[in-house]
Design goal:
With about 170 residues, the chain is α+β, with helices and mostly antiparallel strands. Helices cover about 45% and strands about 15% of the residues.
Length: about 170
């Protein structure tokens, strides 16, 4: 992944990276997964009336069987179903990530390059192409490391489809 942390000669620390999902606005994918899995509600159902066992045997055996059944049902409701929902969410996120990368490659959507100094300063550029965006991250990080300000517009001169930055 194209991500570089650079310290300028004046001591500022900049992070230059390629954003996978710029629409998340700083929120990480895993925090979204954790938040969604916490929302899975726990519902408790009412137990139906059990039929009269008659002369079915020892009362302790019946109570042990009932306790095991209740524990299994509680385990399935409180652990099994939320686990399946979380796994389904992970599969959906993985498929959407794969489709997003394929769409960027096939339709040549530009990657968003972001440079932040840890404070309020944030600069972004749109660069089409995986290799061109990696080179842009290296170029911007190199410029910052040598004491130059982040470029206002960035364009790869020998790469087709590279777009100037929105600075």
């Amino acid at each position: 992944m194209a991500k570089r942390t650079v310290t300028t000669p004046s001591g500022e620390v900049w992070q230059v990276r390629r954003l996978w999902a710029p629409r998340l606005k700083g929120e990480r994918v895993w925090s979204r997964v954790r938040r969604r899995t916490r929302r899975v509600g726990r519902r408790s159902g009412e137990l139906a009336d059990a039929p009269d066992p008659g002369c079915a045997g020892d009362l302790l055996d019946d109570l042990a069987i009932a306790a095991v059944v209740v524990l299994v049902v509680l385990f399935v409701v409180l652990v099994g179903i939320p686990l399946l929902v979380a796994l389904l969410d992970l599969v959906v996120i993985a498929l959407l990530t794969l489709l997003g990368v394929v769409a960027r490659v096939v339709f040549r959507r530009p990657w968003v390059i972001e440079a932040t100094d840890g404070g309020a300063t944030r600069r972004t550029w749109r660069i089409a192409g995986w290799r061109a965006s990696r080179e842009a991250v290296d170029h911007i990080a190199g410029a910052l490391a040598h004491g130059h300000p982040p470029p206002t517009g960035y364009e790869m001169s020998n790469r087709p489809g590279a777009a100037p930055g929105d600075g």
